[in-house]
Write a structure and sequence with these properties.
The complex is a heterodimer of chains A (about 600) and B (about 325). Chain A is mainly alpha-helical. Helices cover about 40% and strands about 10% of the residues of chain A. In chain A, the strands form five sheets. Chain A has a two-stranded antiparallel ribbon with strand order 1-3. A two-stranded parallel sheet of chain A has the order 2-4. Chain A has a two-stranded antiparallel ribbon with strand order 5-6. By secondary structure, chain B is of the alpha/beta class. Chain B starts with 5 loop residues before the first helix and ends with a strand. Classes of the chains: A mainly alpha (about 600), B alpha/beta (about 325). At the A-B interface, α10, α11 and α23 of A face α5 and α6 of B.
């Protein structure tokens, strides 16, 4: 500082004075830092755009008989996610279709380390942003330097990774619940966007109280534009999404206390990339001798990876954000290819015993979850899986709870389970027909599923044209609540909406006695009359369990017809009927 | 010990009194004395009457039959009523209301044939309409219904505004019918100079046969699954509310069983017929015979007839039948 104070005063005030020796960073590094910022914004925008497009929007351009598919691979971020690929490869011993794209990210990591975390990850970008917006309670300057020092608790993410991978080996892809891309899709898609839609809808509908046609039609146009680009024409609701949102907000708020808490301490994808980054060809070279311990490198360090002089750089923690080299005034830090390894710790700094304990916990997860009755016995009747979903055990091997299927469902029929499917089934998709039914000709959930938990079926397979249809369950009548059965009132909306051909719901024409509501003369009991009624029945051999009947039943609070999972195609045990063995006749 | 000043004491007393007075005034202002109120019916019955004056010498019910195609049949039938220029004036905003209720393709005949919709849109534009709007409140997911019915593509190609039902487009209106009172109404369908109803004739498992009058179900939002409990009265109530300028019934291909949704091409028959009328009741009464129904067997026709919405005695109208 004394040199600075002694410097001659006539300097233009606009020129920013660099601290210390004032050696500026290499131009390439300053350019790369801007490129990194641009990349973070671009990938976040891309992520959001793909999320907005995870919805079917019809078009005037399509032929009537064109199959309904999304034009873009909206699940692209998940396909490129090596944690998803490794997790499901361990549980299923295969790499499903598009997950091979994750090799691109493996390649990136083997060259540049955890550049994904600093340059691409949309959840990481959010944490980067919130870490800047909510400076840690440790304040600025020296206190912030302290906040960005490497901490022992950063090991937690590795232990979590090991536990989740071992759980996957035993048959549960529950780790997907912790994947940052899954979290982003799930939280933003099921919580943030519907909430924003709700607020916007309320605000714009209040515009309709303004007695001005211009204002009203402007509000209508705004709603139309949003419905066609961001969300859909109906308000979305998701079962128990509050927990997803609370955890999401909590993860963001943690930046107030520990900058990039999620990325440093919990993220299993970051941990996996951290494990791989020991082979990275690109890294940091430090000239410890030149370091003046000014700690400017630590002020904006994202990974808490010890960039400062005098300690060894933690390659597995570094996000390659390049803030440290840009800040260094002494020419200490230089990134480059094939740096000498002397000043670097490349491997995660984990303790063997704790790692083994974590792996053991992962191994224990499956038996602990499964003896809690929800899967093998006492299967919940309302755990109705999407069309094309594989058998429940296979489903748990594959479902990463990314919520793509729930986001894309045009009727908001798919919802994140809370504990209906057991603790193991947290946030896996279930059909809640009362909120939305499964559209008969729609196969979009399978199209966007990145792991094959929902297979990519065709319309013909789903509707059973030439083959047996895909059944999600079976509908049942509650004769105590059904209008024609219990109240001698005509209805059969369920029959009208039943989409199969021939219809699974058939009606029986009956004449039934009904009491006149008015009492007879002289207080006699009310007279009886006869009404003609159509009483609905379900043919379980034809019912596909789509839930359209349950959705449209006018008995609002607890419908008189409801679907349960029994009879679902994917299960050999959750059945009612004796199997039809006329194989040659089936399908025609 | 510090002594408080008189000024300070007065200030603090004044502040406390002010807050109390403010709270009291505000509370009194928005005070709710309780009791169930506001549920009483008020507001006049709303009717949307788009009919024109009678044109003597012109047919009131026209039927065009033959294999000449949708455009020719629609053109011939509308011409017999006096041509589209009789119904649409230069600069009109015309709403065309097809049936786009179901996620079915044109071959299934659950929705109005897109060629019939296109023919009506074209006639309206040719007659000088400023804007033609095609809209319906679907039963299945609307985006899918509009696309797979083929109507979106056909109407858009002719320059029509295709409006999908969205929650913000519904406003509560007062129908004051026998069974329908306050309901959310798809405003796009009732904000027009002229309204042309373009239903498809088809079997209906509860109402037996439906075409023009039942097509107004698409005007309603809300929980219309309750309407089936009194389907005939609710159809009559809706036809009382909506009086179209013109009705054009598509009976090119007719769903003869498993209506209204169908889904099996074997349930349809090609009848190559288009019915046009200024009387929606007469149009339905005539068209029901296409699937072997009789007008006296359809209570909603008798209800509408008795209310004077139209006549089910189509023989009493000036008629024209065209074979192409």
């Amino acid at each position: 500082m004394s040199e600075g104070a002694a410097a001659p005063p006539p300097r233009p005030p606009a020129a920013k004075k660099l601290p210390g020796s004032g050696i500026p960073a290499r131009p390439i590094v300053r350019a790369l830092r801007w490129a990194r910022r641009a990349s973070q914004v671009a990938f976040f925008v891309l992520f959001m755009e793909l999320l907005f497009r995870t919805a079917f929007r019809g078009t005037f351009a399509a032929q009537a008989d064109a199959p309904v598919r999304l034009p873009l691979p909206v699940e692209g971020f998940l396909l490129a996610d090596p944690f998803v690929a490794v997790l499901t490869a361990l549980s299923t011993h295969t790499v499903y279709r598009g997950l091979l794209w994750s090799l691109a990210l493996v390649l990136l990591t083997l060259v540049f380390g955890r550049a994904f975390c600093g340059w691409i990850c949309p959840f990481g970008a959010l944490h980067h942003f919130f870490g800047w917006l909510l400076p840690s309670s440790r304040g600025r300057g020296a206190a912030r330097v302290l906040a960005n020092r490497t901490r022992p608790w950063q090991r937690v993410k590795y232990y979590l990774l090991y536990a989740l991978l071992v759980a996957a080996m035993f048959g549960s892809a529950v780790g997907g619940a912790f994947d940052p891309i899954c979290i982003s899709v799930r939280s933003i898609g099921l919580g943030v966007l519907p909430a924003a839609q709700y607020v916007t809808g309320r605000a714009l509908s209040s515009a309709h109280t303004v007695p001005s046609h211009a204002v009203q039609s402007a509000a209508d146009s705004a709603e139309d534009a949003l419905a066609h680009t961001v969300w859909q024409a109906h308000q979305s609701y998701f079962h128990q999404a509050w927990l997803i949102v609370v955890l999401f907000v909590a993860a963001l708020v943690m930046n107030r206390f520990v900058p990039r808490f999620w990325c440093r301490v919990l993220c299993p994808l970051g941990a996996l990339l951290g494990v791989m980054s020991r082979f990275a060809l690109f890294g940091m070279k430090k000239d410890h001798a030149k370091c003046t311990d000014c700690n400017l490198c630590l002020v904006h360090c994202q990974g808490a990876d010890s960039p400062q002089g005098g300690v060894r750089w933690r390659q597995d923690e570094c996000h390659m954000c390049l803030n440290c080299e840009s800040a260094c005034p002494e020419d200490v830090i230089k990134f480059g290819f094939l740096p000498a390894r002397g000043g670097t710790i490349a491997k995660p700094d984990t303790e063997r015993r704790t790692a083994l304990a974590a792996a053991g916990a992962g191994a224990l997860f499956l038996p602990a979850a499964r003896v809690a009755d929800a899967l093998d016995v006492n299967y919940h009747s309302r755990v109705i899986r999407p069309p094309g979903a594989v058998e429940e055990r296979d489903f748990f091997e594959r479902c990463i709870r990314c919520a793509e299927c729930m986001k894309v469902c045009p009727n908001d029929a798919l919802h994140p389970a809370l504990f209906e499917a057991g603790v193991e089934g947290l946030w896996t998709p279930i059909l809640i027909p009362r909120i939305g039914y499964c559209e008969f000709s729609c196969v979009l959930c399978g199209q966007v599923c990145p792991t094959g938990a929902i297979q990519k079926i065709t319309e013909r397979e789903k509707m059973g044209l030439g083959v047996a249809p895909v059944k999600l369950g079976t509908a049942f009548y509650d004769h105590g609540r059904c209008l024609p059965w219990a109240m001698q009132t005509p209805c059969i909306v369920c029959e009208e909406f039943c989409p199969t051909s021939p219809k699974a719901i058939w009606v029986e024409e009956v004449e039934a006695p009904v009491r006149d509501p008015k009492p007879g003369p002289n207080g006699e009991p009310p007279p009886m009359k006869t009404v003609k009624l159509q009483r609905p029945h379900v043919d379980p051999a034809l019912c596909v369990g789509c839930g359209a009947c349950e959705k449209v039943c006018p008995v609002q609070d607890q419908p008189a017809v409801y679907v349960t999972s029994v009879g679902e195609t994917r299960s050999k045990t959750n059945v009612i009927l004796l199997e039809n063995t006329a194989y040659d006749k089936r399908g025609g | 010990m510090e002594r408080r000043s008189r000024r300070d004491a007065l200030k603090r007393l004044g502040a406390a009194a002010g807050v109390l007075a403010g709270a009291g005034a505000l509370g009194r202002l928005v005070w709710d004395p309780g009791a169930l109120g506001g549920a009483g019916a008020h507001g006049a019955r709303q009717v949307r009457d788009y009919r024109l004056k009678d044109a003597p010498g012109r047919a009131e019910l026209a039927v065009a039959k033959g294999a000449a195609g949708a455009a020719a049949l629609v053109g011939a039938a509308v011409d017999a009523l006096g041509g589209m220029r009789r119904f649409v004036s230069r600069g009109d905003v015309v709403v065309v209301k097809p049936n786009i209720g179901w996620d079915r393709m044109p071959l299934h005949a659950a929705n109005t044939n897109p060629d019939v919709v296109a023919a009506v849109v074209k006639l309206a534009y040719d007659a000088g309409a400023k804007r033609v709007v095609v809209a319906d409140g679907s039963c299945n997911e609307p985006e899918r219904c509009f696309q797979r019915s083929g109507i979106w593509k056909a109407a858009y190609a002719l320059g029509a505004d295709v409006v999908l039902p969205a929650a913000h487009r519904f406003r509560t209106m007062r129908l004051r019918g026998d069974v329908l009172d306050e309901w959310p109404v798809f405003t796009t369908l009732v904000e027009a100079d002229k309204v042309i109803n373009v239903p498809v004739a088809k079997h209906h498992n509860l109402a037996k046969f439906t075409a023009a009058m039942k097509n107004w179900y698409g005007v309603l939002g809300g929980r219309r699954n309750r309407l089936h409990q009194s389907i005939d009265a609710s159809i009559a109530d809706l036809a009382t509310f909506m009086r179209p300028t013109l009705t054009v019934i598509d009976a090119l291909r007719v769903l003869v069983r498993n209506g209204p949704q169908g889904g099996n091409i074997d349930d349809t028959r090609e009848l190559h017929t288009v019915v046009a009328s200024v009387d929606q009741v007469a149009a339905d009464a005539w068209a029901c015979s296409l699937i072997g129904q009789h007008r006296d067997n359809l209570p909603y026709l008798s209800l509408a007839h008795d209310r004077g919405i139209g006549t089910k005695l189509w023989e009493n109208l000036r008629r024209e039948e065209i074979s192409l």
